[in-house]
Design a protein that fits this description.
two-stranded antiparallel ribbon, globular, Four Helix Bundle (Hemerythrin (Met), subunit A), disordered C terminus, homodimer, three-stranded antiparallel β-sheet, Helix Hairpins, membrane (chains A, B), mainly alpha, disordered N terminus, 5 strands
């Protein structure tokens, strides 16, 4: 992408219009990494036809209201405050009313009529209720409904596809044992060594143990079909938890003073004290008392050092908030140090401000440590990766519109400040046509298509919708009214359709997380089985002494309480110790929480619960997935 | 309500502040008619605590970003175009960022920083993504989720309540017959004559027949529990369909010419011709060709007269679009006639314009006659009554805020036009403090709290959100910054909470309608039974000759194709004639489509499908409705 941009800027002068450029982001969609983006696009493509009827009706309604407005107002010779005519021409009326449906010119578009007679307010109120509140909600509902169905079908197809291939593999590998078709332990080992060559024999044995519910060292078809889910789980061996200090200066590290110190750091009061300190710091920042900054920074640095000493770097950095803290505080320390060294020449070090500002982000940590906010923050963190997918989708649209925008509007005007004198080239942002426009009055000249970054910023502003008609009016002034088509098309694609699909996704994802939170964890079959084996609920080793950890090193330790970005920073380790079923493997494993990792997993969680484990689909045809045939494999 | 308003205006001068007034709309909630509104309020009350955590986190995030903004910008001495300071004070920063989250000051709030350095755009983009797109979507999702659950529980409680009372009634009325506890035909007649005294014996017999599936003239408990659903169905006797003309001038009405005419009117081409004419008319209106108006009016009048002649008034007006047509065309005819009679004095008859404008609404009829739009329009019409419920809810909030607003802001300024001279009392809308404010520059003086209607209009404008900060700034200028609290509270209650609940309702209702549309009609048990009895799919008598109707006058005619507001204006009557099971009653009945009538029915449809017909609830306690116990009454 970057090379495209550079090349664009170089090649810009020689090629006035290059039609292939807007289509270039389609490459992203076909890149192998863009599987999620491809899926999102397929979903958009399938959703659009379904809502087309509603959109057509929506535009017909706008046209109808435009006719009404024309009839009501055009003989009254009203004008806007700036003197432009009021509902005088049909297409202008449609434009004004379309802008009203985005709310961007409310209440300005109503005021001239409202000043004429109070009763005209009803026309606009009825219009807004029908075209904004009802139609827009219905469009959102239709998108939500169709998006959800399409997603469901996609997931179903992919689950069926997975099962089909595993079924085929089973047919090739099976042998008969005691009247049943099974895969033997030997075949299993051969297979797994090819699939995951880097893993140890103990790991392969453990996986077998998880699948093999009857404990007879054979895997039947039904069990084998869960192999893909099993391989998706990231089981990692737990490494030694001894810290650097513990290993090299054990006498000091384990002395009474040191133990007391560590106990102090582990105590609740330690946390509460520093949480309180963050609040005080926030207060100081808010009321701009800069002098205490050094004191706070020193305190927070001490906090981090103490924690590092107590928990060791490995355990310290595994938690999201600690790493976050470390990054924020130390960048602030460095920035402050440079600032202090430079003394008075502060003006030149404005970039350092950014680093100093990061200190404020420590406050976020407090939010994370309050129980009631955990669910919400966890949801946001879980949805995070998926938001990047939609970021990709939106970027593709932005790219296309940015390139087209640059072709049409590039160089029409520029930002030169607003204290230019008459007669200067740079007066009126270098284009006299802007004289008197709202665009110039609002000082929007920096919103232009002169380079790619500025184009992205202006498109983002258009996505937020407010004042988009003012921005559009500037480009209409320097080109022609036809420029409205560009802005209208952008609004329709990116705001009405893509943004609503994004909202539909968040609705779905959030409701899923919420349901899980209220009803207990949603698990895949494999995870359930792991729990049945007694390996699921593990004892957090975080706060136990290293000695204890060494004692039970044969334990399988799922780090459900130690996820990389856990909010559970100081949760009590109140879970029971588990029955040990994997003693013979002689290894400890972490079961990484997978929902953090991939968008796909979240999507699958959404709908996989609705597909029965035995269900392998009607045929294995993606087009006919709606009528799944049930195969009860137990009786086969 | 009206008398409150009048009294308010009378009493206004004597009582400067009357605290009871804002609370007055609470009466509406407790009126007996306000059952739906009460339910909506109960729902809001239960939903709010659930989203409180998210709201708190949302505001904390805004405060955090405000701190960041303060740190980033306050040493740069930037100003807005009008010279006001830029992120200089903490609470101003919070206000600016809260307004940004409503999008109302985008991109104005960003421009000074963006002009300073392009990279500052990222601060605002990240803020908008987090606080607008993510948080607002999550708030919508949380509201949707909680609203849906609360609604489900409400409906479940009311269904259980109904069943409980019917069960108690059954216990009182039952007698033993052949080992079963039943209600006999005699008891049934006694009971029904008390419940629906105005209905005929035939009607009561028919109801019995619908419930009595075993045809043994006895009703068991399970059947009896459906009595309430049955009584909700509006069965009306079909009256004679002979038209006035047919009865009094049969020779002319049934002559060859007349028959030919009627055949012509019934032909598709007749409809297509007039639909085409509406399009042409719309075109003429759009491009302001007024001269052909009389021609079009005459044509449409002829159309209506011909249809009246052919179908008779009863059959004509039963259909929504015909009544609509009649109203629109004849009000236009009357308006035009008055206008023509008055000749040149058109200026004084501006109110007539409104009637003339109504002609344009005929276009809506075309939308309704296009098959692909029918689903959408039907949905809107079905949701219609429920929207009025929410209209009631919003009115309550509006009333409270309007009264408070009038107490605080009434008479601070007024609209006198903008051509006033300096020194006049009415200059700057009568309040010099408005001088130089954006509020005055935008000419918003007519947006004030000087009377109740204007207050409602301004509150509606605030609901639409755009420019709400400008409106607020006007009132801040004439009072103090504390006025911001009023506008903030209004936005939080009416836009963030109530409006999102409204959108949640439309989402739910639309998805329901959509699902029904895709999967066939959702019916109550009773409706299913009626269809099983063969009384469900009836032959439309609309286009058959009266003679034929007289022949089969013993038929039960459900007017599924003749609902009051049917969009099915010219559908072919292609359904089969039904087996006649109600011959002995000697009556024809219309089964009125009930989904048009009450919000409650739509709500019940939403969730009743999820409750099994036999399920009478765990206990009959509304507080414990979550764990329903299943009673299979067949085995009792």
């Amino acid at each position: 992408m970057i090379c495209f941009l550079i090349w664009d800027n170089v090649a810009h002068d020689t090629n006035p219009i290059r039609w292939s450029r807007p289509l270039r982001p389609l490459f992203i969609i076909n890149f192998s990494d863009g599987k999620q983006i491809r899926r999102a696009f397929r979903n958009i493509r399938r959703t659009v036809p379904e809502i087309l009827n509603i959109l057509v009706l929506f535009f017909l309604s706008i046209a109808l209201f435009a006719l009404l407005a024309l009839k009501l107002f055009n003989k009254r010779n009203l004008t806007y405050p700036d003197g432009t005519p009021y509902f005088k021409e049909f297409f202008d009326s449609i434009w004004d009313l379309y802008v009203l449906v985005t709310t961007a010119n409310n209440p300005d578009v109503m005021m001239p009529a409202y000043d004429e007679s109070n009763w005209f307010a009803f026309f606009f109120i009825i219009y807004i209720i029908i075209c904004l509140y009802i139609f827009m909600s219905i469009i959102l509902a239709a998108i939500y409904y169709n998006y959800r169905n399409n997603l469901k079908n996609e997931i179903r197809a992919s689950v069926y596809g997975k099962r089909k291939k595993l079924g085929e593999a089973f047919e090739l590998l099976k042998v008969e044992r005691g009247g049943e078709m099974v895969i033997t332990y030997q075949t299993w080992c051969c297979l797994l060594k090819k699939v995951i060559p880097k893993k140890s024999q103990a790991h392969i044995d453990l996986l077998m143990k998880i699948l093999d519910t009857k404990m007879n060292h054979q895997i039947v078809r039904k069990e084998f079909l869960q192999l893909a889910d099993l391989l998706q789980l990231e089981l990692t061996e737990v490494t030694d938890r001894m810290t650097f200090l513990e290993r090299y200066i054990p006498t000091i590290f384990n002395s009474t003073i040191s133990e007391g110190l560590k106990k102090g750091v582990r105590h609740k009061a330690f946390r509460y004290f520093f949480d309180f300190l963050i609040f005080v710091n926030a207060w100081f920042i808010g009321f701009d008392v800069d002098k205490a900054d050094w004191y706070f920074l020193a305190m927070f640095t001490v906090e981090i050092l103490l924690k590092l000493y107590t928990f060791g770097p490995k355990e310290f950095f595994v938690r999201f908030w600690n790493s976050f803290d470390f990054l924020v505080v130390f960048s602030a320390v460095i920035a402050s140090a440079i600032e202090a060294a430079e003394g008075a020449s502060r003006e030149e070090f404005k970039t350092l401000d950014l680093l100093l500002v990061l200190r404020v982000l420590r406050l976020v940590k407090i939010f994370g440590s309050i129980q009631r906010f955990k669910v919400v923050l966890q949801t946001i963190i879980n949805i995070g990766p998926s938001i990047f997918t939609y970021g990709g989708v939106i970027f593709v649209f932005y790219y296309i519109f940015a390139i087209i925008g640059m072709e049409i509007f590039s160089g029409k005007f520029d930002y030169y400040g607003y204290e230019t004198k008459e007669g200067d080239e740079s007066h009126f942002c270098g284009n006299p046509k802007l004289n008197g426009t709202a665009f110039f009055k609002y000082q929007y000249c920096n919103n232009n298509f002169n380079d790619f970054l500025k184009s992205l910023v202006i498109l983002f502003e258009l996505t937020v919708v407010n004042q988009w008609h003012v921005i559009a009016s500037g480009f209409v002034a320097v080109t022609s009214k036809a420029a409205r088509i560009y802005f209208f098309m952008f609004h329709l694609t990116c705001v009405v359709i893509v943004l609503n699909i994004f909202i539909a996704f968040i609705l779905e994802a959030f409701i899923l997380e919420y349901t899980i939170d209220k009803s207990g964890k949603l698990e895949s079959c494999v995870e359930t089985k792991i729990k049945q084996l007694g390996l699921g609920i593990g004892q957090g080793t975080r706060k136990t002494n290293p000695q204890e950890v060494q004692k039970d090193d044969t334990e399988l330790v799922p780090n459900e309480q130690l996820p990389e970005s856990s909010l559970d920073d100081d949760a009590e380790s109140d879970t029971d110790s588990i029955p040990d079923l994997s003693i013979e493997t002689g290894l400890k494993f972490h079961l990484k929480k997978k929902s953090r990792k991939k968008v796909e997993v979240l999507l699958q969680q959404m709908f996989e619960g609705e597909i029965k484990p035995e269900d392998e689909g009607h045929t294995f045809d993606e087009n006919e997935i709606n009528v799944p045939r049930k195969l009860t494999l137990d009786t086969v």
